[in-house]
Design goal:
Arc Repressor Mutant, subunit A; about 30% helix
């Protein structure tokens, strides 16, 4: 299958939905591609359509009015024949060609069968979001230890609580909605360990004052946690987990200013489930091979560099949402609409329709970006977190590479970043391709704490040899047509 459009958008989360709705309203033919079975991404994840009446998850969401409005706009675009929505399509490569971009995907709607799909358009917008950033600790590979994003995905996608006695840890406000959602469904959330101090936000009062909605959201979580007697422990971290077939307890400790456990503060808490999250890492797998410039972000990640219209440094390539730096759904929506407006202008299709002007959207993006920077600075990764690790702690779970092996690669092998560690130890060569261990290996190997940039991957997601064979056959048929 080979298709041509005016614009391809990869990712149907908040940024991709907003971009598609705006571009279609402006008269463009758009292909919207997403690996999920419904639009909304991780932020607006819902149970399957047939299960929604029986599973109540609306209280877990924010911005549902925006989501439903975007759904209506996309439905109107499909009815008008200007939007081609490709769900359950996993994009594994995007390349530049003379006429624009060629996007390769596999259609997994009839899994386990896969069908190769090639999409072409003069312009490409990448809105692939982000994924949970993890820091290892002894016992983090036990069954029952999940990311906080995984816990929330189970709640939103199926109304499933992963355990009955849960401890959460890490840093950032994302811990609060997960704790509140679990507690509201009868789960005993024993404690929430927040590595940052409570006064960190006072250093960034401007960002808080310009975003009063964030205060209201946080207050709502605080009320829920207080009602269910969930204790939040500041400057505290989960430094270990124990158990046999499943996690049975965690070890927590208070942290000093460098993030090292304070002597004498360690305590053990019984739990059957643990959720851990240290922020998010932008999903850049499609963008890095295309050669666009990256920029360091305050949270220790690199993100794609864009101008004030969401254009990357590659002609015809745009980005919106978390790929430009993690900042939340309202920012992603504004960036998606702004990016689509730039596509319309660059395509000579006229200005973007809607009540919000490009200037108003740019102001909204700037305001939300300022809050995202303040958030990153208030909730950093503790510099001394590696002191939690023993040499036997597994860092790369796919290849079973330990912290001791990573340290040896740096001390004896001269490795100075995660790419060199991978060459010496295979850390990052497994099924996840470094998504779980990459940031941690980078922190262990990079003494100057440079921002983390994922390794370049020409294949962004696992793809079967059968799908590649289909791709080859389709290319041969295309060549016959040209001849």
């Amino acid at each position: 299958m080979s298709e041509t459009a005016d614009l391809i958008i990869v990712g149907a989360g908040p940024a991709g939905m907003a971009a598609a709705a705006t571009a279609v309203a402006g008269g463009l033919r758009v292909v919207l591609v997403d690996s999920g079975t419904a639009v909304g991404g991780q932020f607006w994840r819902h149970p399957p359509q047939e299960a929604r009446p029986a599973i109540a998850t609306e209280d877990l969401h924010h911005g549902l009015r925006e989501y439903r409005a975007l759904e209506r706009e996309l439905s109107a675009g499909r009815a008008a024949g200007r939007l081609d929505l490709r769900l359950a399509h996993h994009v594994w490569s995007a390349v530049r060609e003379e006429a624009g971009f060629e996007v390769h995907a596999v259609d997994r709607r009839e899994a386990p069968q896969e069908t190769a799909v090639t999409l072409r358009a003069p312009r490409l917008l990448v809105a692939t979001g982000a994924y949970d950033r993890q820091l290892p600790f002894p016992g983090w590979d036990l069954p029952g230890v999940l990311t906080v994003g995984g816990l929330q995905a189970l709640l939103k996608g199926g109304g499933v609580a992963a355990g009955s006695r849960v401890v959460l840890g890490g840093t950032g406000p994302f811990l609060l909605p997960v704790a509140a959602g679990l507690a509201a469904r009868g789960v005993e959330v024993v404690t929430v360990c927040e590595a940052a101090g409570p006064l960190a936000w006072l250093r960034h009062p401007g960002a808080l004052l310009r975003n009063p909605g964030k205060w209201a959201e946080g207050a709502g979580y605080a009320v829920t946690l207080a009602r269910h007697r969930v204790r939040v422990r500041p400057r505290t971290a989960i430094i270990g987990a124990d158990g046999g077939d499943r996690v049975s307890s965690v070890r927590i400790a208070s942290l000093d200013p460098d993030g090292r456990p304070r002597p004498g503060t360690e305590r053990r808490i019984e739990a059957d489930t643990v959720g851990v999250g240290w922020g998010f890492t932008p999903q850049l797998d499609l963008l890095i091979p295309l050669g666009c410039e990256l920029a360091d972000f305050e949270d220790g990640n690199t993100a794609v560099a864009v101008d004030d219209g969401q254009r990357t440094t590659v002609a015809g390539l745009y980005a919106a949402g978390e790929a430009c730096g993690v900042g939340g759904a309202p920012l992603a929506v504004a960036e998606g609409r702004l990016a689509a407006g730039s596509v319309l202008i660059d395509s000579s299709a006229g200005p973007a329709p809607g009540r919000r002007t490009p200037a108003a959207l740019r102001a909204e993006v700037a305001r939300q970006r300022a809050f995202a920077r303040a958030l990153a600075l208030a909730h950093p990764i503790p510099p001394g977190w590696s002191s939690w690790l023993t040499d036997e702690t597994v860092v790369c779970r796919c290849e079973e590479v330990t912290a001791g092996a990573v340290r040896a690669a740096c001390a004896e092998g001269g490795a100075r970043d995660h790419r060199q560690v991978k060459q010496l130890t295979r850390a990052g060569m497994g099924w996840c391709q470094g998504r779980m261990c990459g940031p941690a290996v980078h922190c262990l190997a990079s003494p100057d704490q440079r921002a983390y940039t994922p390794a370049e991957r020409l294949v962004a997601t696992p793809v079967t040899l059968g799908a590649l064979a289909d791709l080859d056959e389709n290319q041969q048929e295309t060549n016959k047509e040209y001849r």
